[in-house]
Design goal:
The chain is an alpha+beta fold. The chain has one domain: Nuclear Transport Factor 2, Chain: A, CATH 3.10.450. The chain has helices spanning 4-23, 26-30, 50-62, 67-70; strands at residues 33-41, 45-48, 73-83, 87-98, 105-119, 122-135. A hairpin with a 6-residue loop joins strand 4 and strand 5 (105-119). The longest helix is centred in the first third of the chain and has 20 residues, at 4-23. The protein starts with a helix and ends with a strand. 21% of the residues are buried.
Length: 136
């Protein structure tokens, strides 16, 4: 069973993941994963390992095709965590709010289904799957 402290650390990991994407810091984003971690979504495809993770986030922040989305803010809620002291499973709802004038809107919503491991006393994603329910 996960301790209260473990659950708090895992939630903090989710928040750091969001902040790194929203502010475009590839190193910080990759740091939320184990070195061989995998991120999988319809938006990114499958990204495996630190270099692919960092490369995609750099592209997301600079490629004009992502311009509207890259100005957005990720909100993650309804977090459910289970597991033990070394491994955890996380499910959470996510939406991307885009501040486009004159009508800010939800550009994407879906859910995460994640596997986490504790490495050297720190929680990291080993795999993170984003299922997009709707995107504009």
């Amino acid at each position: 069973m996960l301790s209260f402290e473990d659950k708090a650390e895992i939630r903090e990991l989710v928040y750091r993941f969001n902040r790194a994407v929203d502010y475009g810091t590839p190193d910080e984003w990759a740091d939320t994963f184990v070195s061989e971690g995998v991120f999988d979504s319809a938006i990114t495809g499958v990204l495996a390992g630190r270099e692919e993770l960092m490369g995609w986030l750099a592209e997301f922040r600079s490629d004009p095709k992502y311009a509207a989305l890259s100005k957005g803010q990720h909100w993650t809620t309804n977090i459910v965590v289970s597991g033990n002291a070394d491994h955890a499973r996380l499910w959470a709802s996510v939406m991307l709010l885009v501040p486009s004038a004159p009508n800010p809107h939800i550009a994407m919503f879906g859910y995460y289904d994640d596997e986490l491991v504790k490495v050297a006393g720190t929680w990291r994603f080993s795999s993170r799957k984003l299922t997009v329910a709707e995107a504009s």
